[in-house]
Amino acid sequence: MQPYELIKAKRDGGRLEPADIRAFIEAYTAGTVADYQMAAMCMAIFFRGMDSRELGAWARAMLESGEVLDLSDTPGVKVDKHSTGGVGDKVSLSLAPLAAACGVPVPMISGRGLGHTGGTLDKLESIPGFNVNLPTSEYRRLVREVNCCLIGQTAQVAPADKKLYALRDVTATVDCIPLIASSIMSKKLAEGIDALVLDVKVGSGAFMKRDEDARTLAKTMIGLGAEMGKKVVALLTDMDQPLGRKVGNALEVIEAVDMLRGNAPEDYTEVTYALTAEMLVLGKKAATVEEAREKLRKVVEDGSAVRKLKEIVQVQGGDPRSIDDYSLLPQAKATVDVVAPRDGFVTGIDTEGVGMAAVALGAGRQRTDSKIDPAVGFTLLKKSGESVKQGEPVVRVHYNDAAQLENVKARLLAAYRFGDVAPVARPLIRERVE
């Protein structure tokens, strides 16, 4: 079938054959199916969905659009983690060195910011000199010798997903379970892993706003992993407010390093420990989650985790001094505070609104070719459940360009809700799925 016929068939609720799906993905990768045609297909999938046979074929075609890496020369169980995206979600920056310091090989191919969410690559690139564009030969070597490597998608690894990832970001087709699941699993299964831990965010700052949608996404990805012979475990984690206190690229690096020193906010620390502990169990470095948590506490206390991060930074071309001296990271020229309009409590945060304020400030992309400012972002001085006085600062804005400042401040104030009674805290780890 021709691309037009396939798009029309899916638009009208038809079922696509695996051979047609493969041909469509191959043509898109080669450039003979145009971006506007793929955008139309994504919108059709957004509204019509895919059955399990279609989804399996779509994910496999994405996976096999490029090289599937072989890390069999690296001993041990190779384990990665993937987050579906959130605001203030810098977990990968601390999780990777934590797991590696405990002996788990961590091959991590990450993405850039998507919609209102931040991207691991953008955060890593705020470290001076850090190179996320290593060739696959160097990636293999570093996983083998350092136990960790953090790179972006190369031209060879899941190239169909690399093109589609950027396209979905600007065509309002990000929050679609079949497209999310196939994107994540094609990229992750191409990187040479044996097992995967999924952080499926749920709440106002996640693509999945409801627990049932997050659970469906988790089960969909676990099913795709099983179909391809990989062990996958998922945690549904809270994203009804930003994770930690920092939002922005260099700011989140600072908070990640603080976590490796045992000095980070409790919510960020807990989510990181929960996900990394699952990696240690899958990687056969701990028999139970409790044993894994004890190992994680030990590598934080003895400094091994920070040393591992410095090693990763150094071997990937970055300046390891910036891990000790935060002044070497990008710094915003000025700050201004957003203040509470009344006495009471923070009763909720529209986390997606905070994410979009960060995009407006320059910490994220409005277009695929937008340039990110690594220095800008927010410090959340007050979070849900905390008391406030009228005029008390609730968010500190770190900015370089004042052009969007009033817009950003208005967005942040609109994102915060205030009331007379503190809300009931929701659990950070909502559910475990395997």
Describe the secondary-structure layout.
Elements (H helix, E strand, L loop, with lengths): L2 H9 L6 H13 L4 H14 L3 H12 L15 E5 L7 H11 L4 E5 L9 H5 L11 H11 L1 E5 L6 H11 L7 H13 L5 E8 L8 H17 L3 E8 L7 E3 H12 L5 H17 L6 H13 L2 H12 L18 E6 L4 E6 L1 H11 L15 E4 L6 E2 L4 E7 L5 H11 E4 L9 E5 L1
Parallel strand pairs: 1-4, 2-3, 4-5
Antiparallel strand pairs: 5-13, 6-9, 7-11, 8-10, 8-12, 9-11
- What portion of residues is helical? 40-55%
Q: Structural class given helices, strands, pairing? A: alpha/beta
Largest beta sheet: strand ordering:
1-4-5-13
Mean pLDDT: 94
Coarse shape: globular
According to DSSP, the number of beta strands is: 13
Give the N-terminus to C-terminus distance in angstroms: 37 Å
* The named CATH superfamily of the largest domain: Nucleoside phosphorylase/phosphoribosyltransferase catalytic domain
Number of helices: 16
Query: Which percent range describes the beta-strand content?
Result: 15-25%
The CATH architecture of the largest domain can be given as 3-Layer(aba) Sandwich
Regions with little confidence, pLDDT below 50 for 5+ residues = none
Order of helices and strands: HHHHEHEHHEHHEHEEHHHHEEHEEEHEE
Question: What's the quaternary structure here?
Answer: single chain
Radius of gyration: 21 Å
